[in-house]
Amino acid sequence: xxxxxxxxxxxxxxxxxxxxxxxxxxxxxxxxxxxxxxxxxxxxxxxxxxxxxxxxxxxxxxxxxxxxxxxxxxxxxxxxxxxxxxxxxxxxxxxxxxxxxxxxxxxxxxxxxxxxxxxxxxxxxxxxxxxxxxxxx
Length: 137
Hints:
Blueprint: H1 2-20, E1 28-30, E2 38-46, H2 51-64, E3 68-73, E4 78-83, E5 92-101, E6 104-113, H3 121-133
Antiparallel strand pairs: 1-2, 2-6, 3-4, 4-5, 5-6
């Protein structure tokens, strides 16, 4: 009977560690550079702040990162923006959502780069995490 107790304890420990992971630790990339589009993702929890307040601060942080055509969509609790830095006329898209999570707000950020384009992974990770930390208040 000790095995189920141990398994339960390890499972709970794993959940605690996953929840404590930082924005940088939650970062991932899906896709093959130049061959497919790339999707950069990360998320973090903003403690003790409501999604509506977080959303406003996220909008300001997105603007500070140099994104264009930024808009806040209150209906979907998201910030949408584009960035065109290659001169190709093919924009990259950013979508950040803010959803209630416990006593705080979970912020998910997704940055999509089209096929044939690349963005330095470390730069994207740092920029997305700067935007999310801008919502900390």
